[in-house]
Predict the 3D structure of the following.
Amino acid sequence: MSEYAIEMRNITKTFPGVVANDKVTLQVKQQEIHALLGENGAGKSTLMSILFGSYTADSGTIHLDGKEVDIKNPNVATSLGIGMVHQHFKLVQNYTVTENIVLGMEPTKGRLLDLGSASKRVKEISEQYALHVDPDSLIEDITVGQQQRVEILKTLYRNANIIIFDEPTAVLTPQEVDELMDILKKLRSEGKTILLITHKLKEIKEVADRCTVLRRGTYIGTVNVADVSEQDLAEMMVGRSVKFEIDKPEQQVGKTMLKLEHLSVTDASGVSRVKDLSLEVHEGEIVGIAGVDGNGQSELLGAITGLIPLASGTILLDGEHLENLSIRERIERGLGYIPEDRKKYGVVGEFSIAENTALKNYYLDTYRRRFGILDFAAMQKEAENLIEQFDIRSAEGSSTLAGSLSGGNQQKVIVAREISLSPKVLVVAQPTRGLDVGAIEYIRRRLIAERSKGRAILLVSFELDEIMNLCDRIATISKGSIVAVNKQHEVTEREIGMMMAGSKAEGAV
Amino acid sequence: MNKRAQKLLQSDGSVSVLVVLLGFLVGTILVALVGKNPLNMYKALLQSFSGYNIDNGRMNVRYIGETLNYSVPFILCGLSMGFAKRVGLFNIGGEGQYIMGMTVAQAVALLGPQIQSLHWMLAILSAIVIGALWGGVVGVLKAKYEVSEVVSTIMLNYVALYLSRIICLQLPGATTYKTANFPQTALIGNTFFQKITNNSLLNNGIFMMIIAVVVYWFIMEKTSLGYGMRATGFNKDAARASGIPVVKSISISMAISGAFAGLAGGIVALGSFKYGRVISGMDGYGFDGIAVALVGNCTALGTTLAGLLFGMLKNAQALMQGKQIPKEITFIIQGLIVIFIALRSALKLYQEYLDKKQLQKEVGVK
């Protein structure tokens, strides 16, 4: 047997305008947990897609157990014993676990479907790897963590020896993350080779044997995880020294700025998404909403901003009722919003930076002249100002199209617009998602600065680290209700994790 | 491919020019294939455009006047399509709005007060208003109830056609195909134009068209209303999240869009005819307007140029027939131009392919 289970040599893959992988080499030893680390856009997913056969490399070779292979499509990958657990599960909600697992290779007895034997086999595998999944439950009835294990079972059922995990912890609570780590170790001890794609250093330190780092499509190096610190890994990933802690000055909070009382939101199909939710945010305070994606966060923010209709309850901004106001009226009352999906809700890609920074106040006297004529020169001047203040990197200054900017710079355009309007309350969703480390640091610093100015900030994030570091108070949401509100430092990540899963914690404020 | 060619492909305007040239090229080949001399087609086009008859060296400025007159409804219907398109709507109802404008202009011309200057103004204004209503209804349905504007405009085209017949049959002196003659006060003819263009039908409508083009450009590019509409057209969600009244934008834009088509109907009714028409089929300007706007990239200038091109082609039809070239070749050229415009995305893909090749060369992949 060759020393390496997987060897990808000099892999190059280009897309229009980008080199996603530039002569990348990846060597994974037999039966190790190998982490693939890099920022968003570093080329991790591309490399894995090539290994799994979703893309074909422009050049370079792939060797499994020392033999060169040609992986034309995912079916070839499966037959070679490669399995992939995707970040977004590919499961049929109203099928049972077994039905999902056999999908595409249904066992038959004669001409009839033989689910009984399949179910038995699923149970065996599940026990062997301590996955604890009931083969006969419906997918819609089990937790996200269990759904992920179904995905793992799917690969094992297809006799995978190499399992790729794409950002597996993004959707999990801290407890579920711990369980997953145990499962990964168990898989390794049972002889599987694991490739773990991630940008979370803590997980790598905890579970991985070796780690390969990619940066902007190029191979930076492979290290023994035991020999390096988290700091070393971060520097390899980013290419310079990184500061983890956030300096946050102590601060007195002022009066209540945003008061949510008994909010309820139902979606189009009549399902209740936010249930009788009450919460307050004060001046000079960041309140974080911790929770797993899909527990009513986006509906809550939609109801506050006016994008989604409110079923019942009241929203008070500095004492004024918002619930019956239009979106524009809410903005005029002092509500700022940094949306999660910045391309969809944040910027108009075909507009210039100047037109984007004026998106919310173009109709006011600032830019509006007689007969409704807009003063585009004034817009550009203001935009140039913001570009400098917020360090927005653009090719052609204020007339650069927003759509041509990088994600980080688009986010800076949005942050610049919202902050320049001096809102009383700033509602922020996932402000650092998909950004590189530099932009993340910058955005977080800006939020702290706004807090210092006395703004009330409501922050929704699925990154627990971000919530724990930035927020003065942390409200944990589960199934559309606030489980508890805790002060920073008075609650641990574990406790929040418990509450995210739905259980009430002791000592809540 | 060199840098300059790349730049050319990235600019919408130059792609349109390329596409038009390509349309003519294929048209030329087709004419040759059916055994006619393509040169005759170009002679007809030259005459339609400049009035100069190359065969006998005679000049007849009437052709210039007719080309311009034909262009007026093309340009206005192009603006109608373009205005809605910029707000992200596909207004196929230009034809219906045009018919309603025509119908109401005819009714006011025959029934309205016969006061000098005021009469035709009232007729034209009514045409604009009915066009705006006909389009605005669609806008409200779309904005409030999410009714697809494509479906509702197509249906309203037929409602307009038959409603027009019902109304016009009630007008004074109506037969199955025409009404009584319009009073002089309702006409928008221009004796000066008639004199200098050797009695062409060119009329005051061209001034109204020029005003419409300026209004279009002004609203879209200069005003706060246009800014909100463009934002809505590019990214409805971001516009809405930023507080732009999207429902209002959509309704107003469909109304303005309809107003342009209604104006076109009014101008054709009072400028090109001396009597009201009881129509049994559609003129097609509304549909051709879609092509005009697409070729003109929905900009004021582009649409004007594209409308002039279409006007010239239409005027050349009779001349071509005179030279034994089937007039249908002009429709084929128009059709080809639209198809090539639709192929623009294919050109973009080709460009991306070239970019990729270039990149691979740079990073040293064989």
In short: The interface with chain B takes residues 12, 14-19, 22-23, 58-59, 305, 307, 326-332, 337, 339, 344-351, 355, 359-360, 362-363, 367-368, 371-374 of chain A (CB under 8 Å). The radius of gyration of chain A is 25 Å.
